[in-house]
Amino acid sequence: MAKNKEPRPTYAVSVVGLSGTEKEKGNCGVGKSCLCNRYVRPSADCYYLEHTSVLSTIDFGGRVVNNDHFLYWGEVLHRGDDGLECRIQIIEQTEFIDDQTFLPHRSTNLQPYTKRASNTKLQSAEKLMYICTDQLGLEQDFDQKQMPDGKLNIDGFVLCIDVSKGCNRKFDDQMKFVHNLYSQISKAKKPIIIAATKCDECVEQYLREVQTFVAGKKNLMLVETSARASVNVDLCFNALTQQMDKTRGKPKIISYLEAYKAQRHLVASVSDKFEKLIVQTVRDYHTNWKIVSNKLKNHPDYEEYINLEGTRKARNTFSKHTEQLRQEHIKRRREDYFTSLPKILNKLLNNLEEIETLSWTEAQNLMKSRPEFQYCFIELEQTPWYETDHLDKTDDRRVPFDILKTMEGERIYQNHVQHLISEKKRFEMKEKFKKTLERVHFISPGQPWEEVMCFVMEDEAYKYIIESDRRDVYSRHQQEIVERAKEEFQEMLFEHAELFYDLDLNATPSCDKMSEIHAVLNEEPRYRALQKLTTDRESLLLKHIGFVYHPTKETCLSGTACVDLKVEQVLANRLVQLDHGRTNIYYNSANIDKVNLCLVGREGLAQELANEIRAQSTDDEYTLDGKIYELDLLPVDVNSGMLLNHSWLSTFKPHGFFCVFSSIESLNYIGDRVNRIRAEIAQSRRDRYSQPVPFILILANQRDNVCKNMPILRHQGQQLANKLQCTFIDIPSSTFPRKFNESQIKQALRAVLEGLKHNFDVMCPMPSIKDLSETDLRIVMCAMCGDPFSVDLILSPFLDSHSCSAGQHGQCNTLILDKIIGDSRRRIQVTVLSYHSSIGIRKDELVHGYILVYSAKRKSSMAMLRAFLAEVQDVIPVQLVAITDSQADFFENEAIKELMTEGEHIATEITAKFTALYSLSQYHRQTEVFTPFFNEVLEKKSNIESFFMFDNSRDGTGIGEDVFPQSPHCHSPAYQYYPDSEDDGEGPPPYSPIGDEVLLLPNPSERKYRIDLEGNEYPVHSTPVGDYERNHKVPPPVKPKPNVLPKPNVKKLDPNLLRTIEAGMKSSRWARAPMMVHGDDLEASDNYAEPADTLKSKGFNDDIYAVPEDAHSRSGKTRNSFGGLALHGDEENGFDSVLKSQGGRRPSKYKHRSKILFSKTKAYHRRVHSDVSDDESGPATQKKKKGRGNRGSEEDPLLSPVDPWKGGIDNPAITSDPEQDDKKMKKKKAPKTKEPKKTKSTKTIKPLYPPTRRNWESNYFGVPLQNLVSPDRPIPLFIEKCVDYIERTGLTTEGLYRVSGNKTDQDNIQKQFDQDHSVDLMVMDVAVNAVAGALKAFFADLPDPLIPYSLHPELVEAAKIVDHYERLQVLKEIMRKFPPVNYEVFKYVITHLNRVSQHSKTTLMTADNLSICFWPTLMRPDFENKDTLSTTKLNQSVIESFIQQCQYFFYSSDITEPSSAEGTPPPHGHGLESLLALQLPPPLQPQQIQHPLPPEPLI
Length: 1499
Fold this sequence. Notes:
Blueprint: E1 10-17, H1 22-25, H2 32-40, E2 54-55, H3 57-61, E3 70-79, E4 85-93, E5 97-98, H4 113-117, E6 121-123, E7 151-153, E8 156-162, H5 171-185, E9 192-197, H6 204-215, E10 221-224, H7 233-244, H8 256-281, H9 289-296, H10 300-348, H11 352-355, H12 360-368, H13 373-376, E11 377-378, E12 399-400, H14 407-439, H15 449-453, H16 460-464, H17 467-495, H18 497-500, H19 511-521, H20 525-528, H21 534-549, H22 563-574, E13 594-601, H23 605-615, E14 621-624, E15 627-637, H24 647-652, E16 656-661, H25 664-685, E17 695-699, H26 706-724, E18 727-729, H27 742-763, H28 769-773, E19 777-783, H29 791-799, E20 804-806, E21 814-821, E22 824-834, H30 835-838, H31 841-844, E23 849-855, H32 859-870, E24 878-884, H33 888-892, H34 894-909, E25 913-918, H35 931-939, H36 941-954, E26 1009-1011, E27 1017-1019, H37 1055-1065, H38 1092-1097, H39 1134-1141, H40 1155-1168, H41 1218-1226, H42 1277-1289, H43 1303-1315, H44 1321-1324, H45 1328-1341, H46 1352-1359, H47 1364-1375, H48 1380-1397, H49 1400-1403, H50 1407-1419, H51 1426-1430, H52 1432-1444, H53 1446-1450, ...
Parallel strand pairs: 1-4, 1-8, 2-5, 8-9, 9-10, 11-12, 13-15, 13-16, 16-17, 17-18, 19-22, 19-23, 23-24, 24-25
Antiparallel strand pairs: 3-4, 6-7, 14-15, 20-21, 21-22, 26-27
């Protein structure tokens, strides 16, 4: 061993083993180079697997090989276990092969390998250290280190034996070579270590042979190594070093397996640390390796891993990690897409019926057709989506469409369909469970779920849904019933308005008052319904009381439905404040000289009128009333399209339209065109307040058929004129050969000029603001908040008028009407308020009249009206207005019928006017609905103001003398009459207050009023022709005397029209007596006035009102302007003197004039004060009743066929206006007629508002008809009992089936029968009308009508057949289609009605009247359907035919010829009534007006 003086000893080690040509060593070496490489340069990056010994001559001669057969690998600094360091220089003995000859290269040493490898002294000048094969020839690119001193002395040998499966060589040959080599090197006396190489691929047999070889040698050690796995490489050289350095201990040899396990553990630990380091460092899969390696190059974990595994593996680990990050990102995006996909499917494919049968592909195509598709999906050009840049667009939430093509996408779709199916089932079950809860009637508001659960546990829906759904449904149900109970409770409070509105405003209810309120309300089920929610109930009650005593529109309990707010909104939208500088009138009509007239007619009629006007003109100049006008005429056919094009309006600028007609057809066309022309004019002027163009309706003479059609044409023309608010020019009474008369043209031209003058007065600026405040009348219209109708309905009669304008600034609820009242134009201020806002002005402000509106669908609305009206002074005129949808409501709904009847009864009691408006009708929204009321108010104005001043002065309130300044229009005549010829006395027919359906026309000589452009009446100077003035108002009811006057011979008309005509023809000799405060003999149920002679016979003094013998002499007592009686008092000054001078009485409140109002007010007092008698029901002490006669208060006003004064409320314009009748009766002489007095009832008065429907459970009523009959009893027992009772006791009862029976009696009859089917109606002693009502109620309660719905169309078509015999034959064929049960009952009922009609002389119930009463009950049509309303008359005629021809239909008799009193031709037959009894106003229906008139005269 070479002695080295250096502190660190240096040893040279020679690594030897099998070498040579391929023949000798095989195609690979034994691993000498790899072993040296791993030991000298252990870093994985510096380890090379390939080291070749086949070199070119150049490489062999290079400085690395340097023409030697050995390589210098460099030196290694070795630190032993004892801490001592030494240097190890490594030499590899090999044999290089020429790549050309494949023979060993020739070198200076020509010894064989075994000899050469054993040399201990090596020398090679400037030999460079070997690194790898790539270094050869490129030495300058690698680290260059020379072998020290160019020579080395070998201190030990490492003999390499390859124990792997040889590379094309035999192991035995290798061992032979090893034996020879070992023999040579052992001679050097140097330490030798046997290195078993490639142990990672070792063959056990080879290893055992090596072990045997080593065991056979002395001091020879075997180390199992693997350079590739870096196992025991250092151990091999360290063991040799310990042998070379005698001072070191004997080395410990570790087997390959143990060393391999330790190495793998180390690698795993280092790898784990490195992977964690990569995970912590790299979070984005876009990160670059270069950036990461630079960042981690100084990190110990990184350096250790690079050293053990190398940069390539580190990069692979990095790439694997980044790929994992990418896959995780893809996975997240995919999961997000799949998560959002159900929501998208629910949005695009939410209709189960649409997709339930679709495949996934079809569903995808369906989604593409949705407009929302582009916002939910994105279609990429390249697929799959994760290979595109869309993967990194995290802000784009759209789902790649190709993701739907995956199995997961299809699975989600199938789950979506199943979810829809399950949700549908779940929803159905929840709704079913909801219905189950609704059927459990004992569930009260606020009741806990736990108390209810046990009662519904067996329900199928309960079992299907989960507990959370059950609680959710129950919570929803509770919320509904609580809200409904609160609404009903609030409505109940409104219905008890009299209970709350008896104190002044801004008051505080006392303890006694609160006790009274609770005592009354506690009787109400709606009060007790909130028993479990007492806190909410008390809160609602206190809130209601607070509002009653401190009402404002901001705190209105109806919220946004407050009338004050709605009226303000409507008026703000439809009215504007008057602009005094308005100058948009395109002509000055005050001083007009040229008049442009458009003549409209059909089939050349307009041209004929133009020719007639030109014939009366001179060079187109027409002289009228001393002034010459230039006329520009434009005749236009009514079918011309020019009328509907507003372009000609701007060029021609018509001042008026002459609309001429001579037939029903031409009148229909005109009615249709006028509204369209007006709309075009409004559109062309673009200004609602531009002046309206006057329209004049002119009736042309019919030369060929004067007497036949003229009454009808006049009637329909007047009707259309009223609807269109235009002037009607009639044909003069004389017969003229031409179609047009000069007087007609003059009247028409005057009407145009007067209309233009009126429009100019209205549209021109007012002289000053002061004029605007000058109103002749102040009217307050009241409505209840929350009523089920639009305020437009009650405002439209004013707003649709051209004379309507806005009130003063700041009066948001006020409008001004400029109308002709009496003989002058008046300015009327109408303030529309809620009842709660009106209460404040009821006493403090001057009001000339109240229009009180209520909904006939709402009891609380009537209650509020009663509470308000009760405290109004009875000197102030009142008009009651009932609102409902249509006339059919009266027949179909008992509650509506009762409320409308009550309103009319109140109006009758207080001598007020009553009318009805229908929300579904467009034909009664005219100011003329209130014209009679305005007339009455104007007549009573002075008395109202006198009382107001007296009342305020008595209260200490000073009122100025000039309560209302004189209107600037009050002295201007509304119409200046110009007598031109005797024909000019022919004025247009007046507006009939009876309405559209029934409009009576007086004879031309009987007309007292004309109609201006607004439809207002003004006087006409003409002389009446006859002894009686025709009366269009409905006279008050009078109790008939025994000797009834015979009816005039009136031909068959529509029943209501006929009776109204009869009422107009009769002289009304009696007027209603006012309700007395101190009348002991008056009964609460009487609604009849009594003649004066009857009153005198009872002991009343002369102050009682009686109609005078001579109205002109005024010798009798007359009613004062307040409609009351003259009462004597002690005061002789102030208002008493006014009363005395007028023969009147002291005014009081309306509650003292109405038994209904008084009884309602006192009813609450009686509930809490037991000292008041239960019999006290009004201001007058009730008499003991006698018998069960027909009560007037229960009479059906719509079905009254005999009492002409009870015109009813089926026509909105019919008003209860006895005072108007009084005034007209006072103008004519009417002899008194003795009539018998009706026997008064002795029974106790029944409640005015009986139950409207059955409120008890019944096993008989309301069940199918077939359940009530049997083969031996085909007629239900209840029907037989009722019919038997009626025919035994009621065939002499007037108004049988028409007059409503008491509802309580009806209910009692049905209840008694429910309990005992053998009950005897005779023993019950009930009124026949109650039995009749119970019978009708039986049919009304049937699940299906007696006449099946399926046969209604056939019956209607049959009713249209003109031929009488053919119609009856078809009806008989249809009747045979009835179900057997229905047929037998129908036969029985019709036979009964036929017997009743045979007593019409006493009952006054003809077949016609009975059919009116019974057809809605037997057929039960849907009155909400407009088609039903149009067939009302047809349905009634069908039932009438069955009643009349009962013997023919059911008993095989011959057809009975109808008498004049009974026969009713079909609605489409040849009869006058088919034309007069129109159900709708113009435009007229052609099918109702195209039939010729009968030859007999109208009357």
